[in-house]
Amino acid sequence: MTWTSSAQLAQQEAHMTPSEPTMAVALGRGARCKCPACGEGALFRKYLKVVDTCGACGEALHHHRADDMPAYIVMSIVGHIVVGLVLWVEFRYAWPVWLHLSVWLPLTLALTLALLQPVKGFIVALQWALRMHGFGTSRAPLAATVSTN
Fold first, then answer.
1. Contact, 41 vs 33, CB < 8 A?
2. Torsion of Cα atoms, 128 then 132 then 137 then 142, to 10°
3. I need a labelling partner for 74 at 20 to 30 A (CA). Which of 33, 83, 116, 129 fits?
């Protein structure tokens, strides 16, 4: 296995082609539900169905294996937000049960539906950027880094 120093990795990134975005750029594109490679094509053809190939650049996206990861992340985010608010409101104002249900159930549903697609896009972009599950077959492999402190 060949190890690359931080300086060599920085030099490689400086010579990357415009079609090879940095990790942060690819993740941002995925979170905006755009192709992680070009940022122009749509990542989804339906609500959570990833396109097979990007309509703008032709990048193959069918390799992804997001599975249940986006749902787990969304449940964690929404759960922390809603449970924290429920507890705060209950101890501060002591709402009746019907009011809790009429506020927190729609909020939970809205937050879940709003976050699922961007989180799945983020996970697909992460897999693309790390060349996981067959994404890296048409691109140069990533160099491993070792701290040279």
1. no
2. 80
3. 129
Residues 85-123 as b/e (b if ≥16 CB within 10 A, e otherwise) read ebeeeeeeeeeeeeeeeeebeeebeebbeebbbbbbbbb
Per the CB < 8 A criterion, the answer to whether 124 and 66 are in contact is: yes
Residue type, 101: L
Whether this model's pTM surpasses 0.85: no
Decide the pairing of beta strands 3-4 and 144-145. Answer: parallel
pLDDT band (50, 70, 90) for residue 5 = low
For the chain, the straight-line distance linking the first and the last C-alpha, in angstroms and rounded, comes to 20
With CA atoms as reference, report the closest residue to 133 among 123, 143, 120.
Answer: 123
Tokens describing residue 32: 């905006």
> What is the DSSP secondary-structure string of 34-74?
B-TTTS-SBSBSSSS-B-SB-TTT--B-TT---TTHHHHHH
